[in-house]
Amino acid sequence: MLRTVLLSSLLPALTLGLLASPSAAEDAPSHDGSWRGVVAASIQNTVRLDATIHAQRASLQFGEPANCKIVADHLRDVDGSSFYRFHPSTNGGGFCARLYPGELMVDTPAPGSIAMAFQRAESRWAGVLRRANSAKE
Fold first, then answer.
1. Rounded Cα–Cα distance for residues 84 and 72 (Å)
2. Measuring CA to CA, how many Å separate 64 from each of 15, 50, 56?
3. pTM (2 decimals)?
4. Which of 14, 21, 67, 82 is packed most tightly, with the most Cβ within 10 A?
5. Can you point out the beta strands (E) in 1-137?
6. pLDDT confidence of 2, banded at 50, 70, 90?
7. pLDDT at 76
8. Strand partners, 85
9. Poorest-confidence range of 19-33, 43-57, 66-80, 112-126?
Protein backbone atom coordinates (compact mmCIF):
# COMPACT_ATOMS: atom_id res chain seq x y z
CA MET A 1 0.00 0.00 0.00
CA LEU A 2 2.86 2.37 0.79
CA ARG A 3 4.30 1.67 -2.66
CA THR A 4 0.95 2.57 -4.28
CA VAL A 5 0.73 5.83 -2.32
CA LEU A 6 4.31 6.80 -3.21
CA LEU A 7 3.86 5.89 -6.86
CA SER A 8 0.56 7.78 -7.17
CA SER A 9 2.07 10.89 -5.55
CA LEU A 10 5.27 10.79 -7.66
CA LEU A 11 3.65 10.07 -11.03
CA PRO A 12 2.14 13.57 -11.53
CA ALA A 13 5.46 15.19 -10.53
CA LEU A 14 7.42 13.00 -12.95
CA THR A 15 4.95 13.67 -15.76
CA LEU A 16 5.05 17.42 -15.15
CA GLY A 17 8.85 17.35 -15.06
CA LEU A 18 9.04 15.54 -18.40
CA LEU A 19 6.57 17.90 -20.04
CA ALA A 20 8.08 21.08 -18.61
CA SER A 21 11.72 20.39 -19.48
CA PRO A 22 12.63 20.62 -23.18
CA SER A 23 14.58 17.74 -24.60
CA ALA A 24 18.19 18.11 -25.71
CA ALA A 25 17.11 17.50 -29.30
CA GLU A 26 14.78 20.52 -29.18
CA ASP A 27 17.53 22.76 -27.77
CA ALA A 28 20.11 21.67 -30.34
CA PRO A 29 20.25 23.69 -33.57
CA SER A 30 19.47 21.70 -36.71
CA HIS A 31 22.26 21.84 -39.24
CA ASP A 32 21.12 18.71 -41.09
CA GLY A 33 21.47 18.84 -44.85
CA SER A 34 24.01 19.23 -47.62
CA TRP A 35 26.16 22.35 -47.66
CA ARG A 36 28.69 23.83 -50.09
CA GLY A 37 31.17 26.69 -49.91
CA VAL A 38 34.75 27.73 -49.32
CA VAL A 39 36.79 27.71 -46.12
CA ALA A 40 39.95 29.74 -45.72
CA ALA A 41 42.85 30.28 -43.36
CA SER A 42 43.90 33.38 -45.31
CA ILE A 43 43.31 34.91 -48.71
CA GLN A 44 45.98 32.62 -50.18
CA ASN A 45 44.83 29.48 -48.34
CA THR A 46 41.33 28.58 -49.52
CA VAL A 47 39.70 25.24 -50.30
CA ARG A 48 36.29 24.15 -51.56
CA LEU A 49 34.19 22.23 -49.04
CA ASP A 50 31.13 20.01 -49.49
CA ALA A 51 29.61 19.06 -46.14
CA THR A 52 26.76 16.76 -45.20
CA ILE A 53 25.35 16.79 -41.69
CA HIS A 54 22.87 14.08 -40.76
CA ALA A 55 21.92 12.25 -37.58
CA GLN A 56 24.64 13.68 -35.35
CA ARG A 57 27.43 13.14 -37.93
CA ALA A 58 29.23 15.60 -40.21
CA SER A 59 30.98 14.37 -43.36
CA LEU A 60 33.37 16.81 -44.99
CA GLN A 61 34.85 16.50 -48.47
CA PHE A 62 37.57 19.00 -49.33
CA GLY A 63 38.42 19.92 -52.92
CA GLU A 64 41.85 20.53 -54.44
CA PRO A 65 44.53 20.93 -53.26
CA ALA A 66 43.41 19.18 -50.04
CA ASN A 67 41.42 16.46 -51.86
CA CYS A 68 40.34 14.39 -48.85
CA LYS A 69 37.34 13.32 -46.77
CA ILE A 70 36.84 13.23 -43.01
CA VAL A 71 33.96 12.44 -40.64
CA ALA A 72 33.14 14.01 -37.28
CA ASP A 73 30.61 12.94 -34.65
CA HIS A 74 28.50 15.35 -32.64
CA LEU A 75 30.09 16.20 -29.31
CA ARG A 76 28.00 18.95 -27.70
CA ASP A 77 25.91 22.09 -28.25
CA VAL A 78 26.83 25.37 -26.58
CA ASP A 79 25.02 28.70 -27.04
CA GLY A 80 23.52 27.76 -30.42
CA SER A 81 26.76 26.29 -31.81
CA SER A 82 27.33 22.59 -32.41
CA PHE A 83 30.72 20.98 -31.85
CA TYR A 84 31.88 17.79 -33.57
CA ARG A 85 35.00 15.64 -32.96
CA PHE A 86 36.94 14.49 -36.03
CA HIS A 87 37.69 10.81 -36.67
CA PRO A 88 40.95 9.76 -38.32
CA SER A 89 40.71 10.30 -42.08
CA THR A 90 40.09 7.02 -43.92
CA ASN A 91 41.12 8.06 -47.43
CA GLY A 92 44.42 9.67 -46.49
CA GLY A 93 45.49 13.13 -47.47
CA GLY A 94 47.71 15.27 -45.28
CA PHE A 95 45.14 18.04 -44.92
CA CYS A 96 42.53 15.77 -43.30
CA ALA A 97 45.10 13.73 -41.37
CA ARG A 98 46.15 16.88 -39.50
CA LEU A 99 42.55 17.67 -38.50
CA TYR A 100 42.37 14.64 -36.21
CA PRO A 101 41.70 14.72 -33.22
CA GLY A 102 40.42 18.27 -33.49
CA GLU A 103 36.96 19.77 -33.33
CA LEU A 104 34.64 21.30 -35.87
CA MET A 105 32.32 24.13 -34.84
CA VAL A 106 29.08 24.73 -36.74
CA ASP A 107 26.90 27.79 -36.27
CA THR A 108 23.93 29.33 -38.11
CA PRO A 109 24.64 32.98 -38.99
CA ALA A 110 21.58 33.35 -41.27
CA PRO A 111 18.77 31.20 -42.69
CA GLY A 112 20.00 28.90 -45.46
CA SER A 113 23.64 29.03 -44.39
CA ILE A 114 26.00 27.64 -41.79
CA ALA A 115 29.37 28.84 -40.57
CA MET A 116 32.11 26.24 -40.03
CA ALA A 117 35.39 26.68 -38.23
CA PHE A 118 38.18 24.28 -37.31
CA GLN A 119 41.83 24.35 -36.34
CA ARG A 120 44.48 22.71 -38.55
CA ALA A 121 48.03 22.88 -37.22
CA GLU A 122 48.49 26.54 -36.23
CA SER A 123 45.89 27.86 -38.67
CA ARG A 124 42.22 28.50 -38.00
CA TRP A 125 40.06 27.70 -41.03
CA ALA A 126 36.57 29.16 -41.36
CA GLY A 127 33.89 29.86 -43.92
CA VAL A 128 30.19 30.21 -44.59
CA LEU A 129 28.49 27.43 -46.53
CA ARG A 130 25.10 27.55 -48.24
CA ARG A 131 22.61 24.74 -48.80
CA ALA A 132 23.92 22.65 -51.69
CA ASN A 133 20.67 22.87 -53.64
CA SER A 134 20.75 26.68 -53.50
CA ALA A 135 24.51 27.24 -53.89
CA LYS A 136 25.74 28.78 -57.10
CA GLU A 137 28.19 26.58 -58.91
1. 5
2. 54, 12, 27
3. 0.75
4. 82
5. 33-40, 46-54, 57-62, 68-78, 81-86, 103-107, 113-120, 123-131
6. very low
7. 94
8. 73, 103
9. 19-33
